């Protein structure tokens, strides 16, 4: 409904569009009758003071009892002449609320004004005591923007243009407000001096009432009385959220203790186990009975010590250590502030797992330390190909690691003796001899040494024939010899090496972006032959793309080589396995890169290779493409509430996704696409 600005009983729109009267004047023609009275009550013309053009104003005719629309009926024809006496009206008004605050709407009501011998035709209001009329009408409203007493003047005019004025003082109390203040510390009680954002939101509407940033570990906000949700956030900590009531002129103290963000979450099972290496990892958390899993790659013969330290009063933590088959090999359960497991020498190379379990319903912060090293007096033999054809050469490496620098002798025997044994590397050995069935090396006095030699398989060797390696180290500091562990056999294989293995791509992107990671999943099919553990290796497209990880059906991996590689678990004849390779794209990468990948059967020497080109594109500018890139969806209709929540969380923490720095416009686009669906 349109407003009635002048209080004449007609809507503003009706006055403008239908009657042609002034919506800001209650009496357009000045005849003493309000426009609404002329139209709705008397049937006179509000734009003409003398509707019947008989020389008498409409209002005078009504007072004298004649018809203002009939020119034949005028006061001159009346038996009673018009009166020249007119009493002025009485001006009076009230307001509500009686003690308004700054910013509060005040309603002024002049219905208590009166006229003893007629009626009041106009109400004029002056709200700032400057003599200027701000509003007209019997009932009006006004709002003050500053505290203190101010003057309001009402002037009323009757139908004979007599007027009367009254003035009153109106109080304006200061705006009602309360205060929220507090400190921001970490779990050790130290102030957080890194950038922290605080947001004070209406707990009912989630509207942000005020917000700000602080770097001194303290914050203060002024808000009207009410219930508020307080959110304290930082990129290095989990959000602190709490709801509190604020009262007038009262200070509500809300001290925020921020928990450090656990960089490895989620890692609640073997599949999501976080990869770690030797070192100390701080600010971890086990929350409400959850489990944390960590994966660490160890070479055969290496030792590992793992410890966790925490405050037992926060809750109890327990630790288990699993082998590559995910079987427990050692555990630690106590009521102290730390748990420790130690493995002197692992029996095989592969991925081992650390399980930290919380038996408490509370959040328990903890630190984890892993120390890895060769076992004392450890000597390991590695054969590069344990299946070879007649005439092939295999490389044998013996790595010796002793606990003291000293002279020692290595003797490695081969049975039956091959046709040729040649030493190709003898680091830290001062004397090396080779025979048809043995290699002997004398160290130069050290705690570690490496001996490398090649063995040629005789041309007449039969399929399935086995060459066995056995040896020991004579250490002068110990009474007993130290056996050489590791690979110990080479089996002759004369079967056809061609067409026994096939490598193909299951999932690979067509385009990638600078400063991002992406994965390619490969399928390895054993077309024929025995169960085999394959080796997959590749080059990412140096220097623009490098390999950073292998996952899937793998036993172990090595990322430190020029061509990073991984060894699969055994694949039976006619079966297929898959391996996923993770690549890192350089920030300055452009153009097209070629990914070269090869899978090799160590038993037969068979190989299968792939080369594929991937184009490098820049970060998209289109809002739709950016939203899809951030959420990982293929089309906007597939967006879920989880996608929206994850994007908002990463934005609040200043994180990037797939090389895209999330902006407010991205969040708006993601929310819009989700709500539209």
From TrEMBL:
Q: Which residues form the PKD domain?
A: 89-179
Q: Where in the cell is it found?
A: Secreted
Name the residue ranges with Low complexity bias.
Answer: 77-89
The main place the protein resides is secreted
Where is this chain compositionally biased, Acidic residues type?
A: 1-14, 28-38, 50-61
Does the keyword field hold Methyltransferase? no
Which cofactors, if any, are listed as required? Ca(2+)
Arranged from A to Z, the UniProt key words for this protein are: Calcium, Secreted, Signal
Region named Disordered: 1-146
Give start-end positions of Basic and acidic residues composition bias.
116-137
Q: By its UniProt entry, which InterPro entries does this protein fall under?
A: Ca-binding_acidic-repeat, CarboxyPept-like_regulatory, Ig-like_fold, Peptidase_C_arc/bac, PKD/Chitinase_dom, PKD_dom, PKD_dom_sf, TSP3_bac
Report biased composition (Polar residues) as residue ranges. Answer: 93-110
> Does the record bear Calcium in its keywords?
yes
Which PROSITE patterns does the entry link to? PKD
Query: Known Pfam families for this protein?
Result: PKD_4 (PF18911), PPC (PF04151), TSP3_bac (PF18884)
Query: Which PANTHER family would you find in this protein's record?
Result: EXPORTED CALCIUM-BINDING GLYCOPROTEIN, EXPORTED CALCIUM-BINDING GLYCOPROTEIN-RELATED
What is the name listed in the Swiss-Prot or TrEMBL entry for this protein? PKD domain-containing protein
This chain's source organism reads Halorubrum persicum
């Amino acid at each position: 409904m349109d407003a009635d600005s002048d209080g004449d009983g007609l809507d503003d729109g009706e006055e403008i569009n239908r009657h042609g009267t002034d919506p800001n004047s209650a009496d357009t023609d000045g005849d003493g009758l309000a426009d609404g009275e002329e139209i709705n009550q008397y049937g006179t013309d509000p734009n003409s003071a003398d509707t019947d053009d008989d020389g008498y104003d409409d209002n005078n005719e009504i007072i004298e009892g004649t018809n203002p629309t009939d020119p034949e009926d005028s006061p001159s024809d009346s038996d009673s002449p018009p009166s020249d006496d007119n009493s002025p009206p009485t001006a009076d008004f009230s307001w509500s609320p009686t003690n308004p605050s700054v910013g509060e709407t005040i309603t002024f009501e002049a219905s208590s004004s009166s006229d003893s011998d007629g009626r009041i035709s106009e109400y004029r209001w002056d709200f700032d005591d400057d003599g200027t009329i701000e509003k007209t009408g019997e009932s009006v409203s006004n709002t003050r923007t500053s505290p203190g007493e101010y003057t309001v003047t009402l002037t009323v005019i009757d139908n004979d243009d007599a007027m009367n004025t009254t003035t009153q003082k109106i109080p304006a109390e200061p705006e009602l407000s309360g205060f929220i203040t507090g400190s921001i510390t970490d779990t050790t009680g130290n102030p957080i001096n890194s950038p922290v954002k605080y947001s004070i939101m209406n707990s009912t509407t989630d509207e942000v009432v005020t917000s700000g940033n602080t770097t001194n570990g303290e914050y203060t906000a002024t808000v009207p009385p009410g219930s508020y949700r307080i959110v304290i956030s930082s990129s290095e900590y989990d959000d602190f959220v709490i709801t509190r009531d604020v009262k007038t002129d009262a200070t509500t103290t809300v001290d925020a203790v921020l928990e450090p963000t656990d960089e490895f979450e989620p890692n609640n099972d073997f599949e999501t186990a976080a990869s770690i290496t030797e070192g100390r990892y701080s600010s971890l958390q086990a929350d409400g009975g959850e489990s944390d899993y960590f994966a660490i790659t160890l070479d055969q013969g290496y030792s590992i010590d793992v410890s966790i330290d925490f405050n037992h009063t926060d809750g109890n933590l327990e630790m288990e250590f699993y082998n590559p088959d995910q079987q427990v090999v050692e555990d630690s359960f106590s009521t102290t502030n730390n748990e420790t497991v130690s493995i002197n020498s692992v029996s095989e190379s592969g991925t081992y797992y650390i399980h930290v379990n919380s038996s408490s319903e509370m959040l328990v912060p903890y630190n984890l330390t892993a120390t890895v090293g060769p076992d004392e007096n450890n000597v390991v033999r590695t054969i590069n190909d344990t299946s070879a054809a007649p005439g092939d050469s295999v490389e044998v490496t013996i790595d010796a690691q002793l606990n003291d620098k000293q002279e020692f002798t290595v003797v490695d025997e081969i049975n039956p003796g091959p046709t040729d044994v040649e030493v190709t590397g003898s680091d830290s050995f001062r004397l090396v001899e080779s025979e048809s069935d043995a290699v002997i090396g004398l160290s130069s006095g050290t705690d570690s040494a490496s001996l490398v030699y090649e063995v040629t398989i005789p041309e007449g060797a039969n399929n399935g024939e086995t060459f066995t390696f056995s040896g020991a180290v004579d250490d002068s500091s110990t009474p007993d010899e130290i056996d050489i562990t590791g690979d110990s056999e080479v089996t002759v294989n004369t079967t056809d090496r061609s067409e026994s293995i096939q490598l193909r791509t299951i999932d690979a992107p067509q385009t990638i972006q600078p400063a991002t990671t992406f994965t390619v999943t490969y399928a390895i099919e054993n077309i024929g032959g025995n169960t085999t553990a394959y080796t997959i290796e590749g080059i990412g497209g140096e220097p623009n793309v490098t390999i950073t990880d292998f996952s899937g059906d793998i036993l172990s991996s090595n990322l430190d080589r020029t061509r990073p590689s991984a060894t699969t678990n055994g694949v039976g004849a006619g079966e297929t396995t898959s391996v996923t390779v993770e690549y890192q794209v350089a920030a300055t990468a452009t153009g097209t890169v070629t990914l070269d990948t090869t899978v090799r059967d160590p038993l037969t020497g068979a190989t299968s290779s792939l080369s594929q080109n991937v184009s490098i594109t820049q970060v998209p500018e289109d809002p739709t493409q950016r939203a899809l890139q951030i959420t990982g969806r293929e089309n906007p209709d597939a967006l879920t509430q989880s996608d929206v929540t994850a994007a908002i969380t990463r934005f609040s923490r200043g994180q990037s996704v797939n090389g895209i720095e999330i902006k407010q416009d991205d969040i708006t686009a993601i929310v819009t696409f989700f709500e539209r669906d």
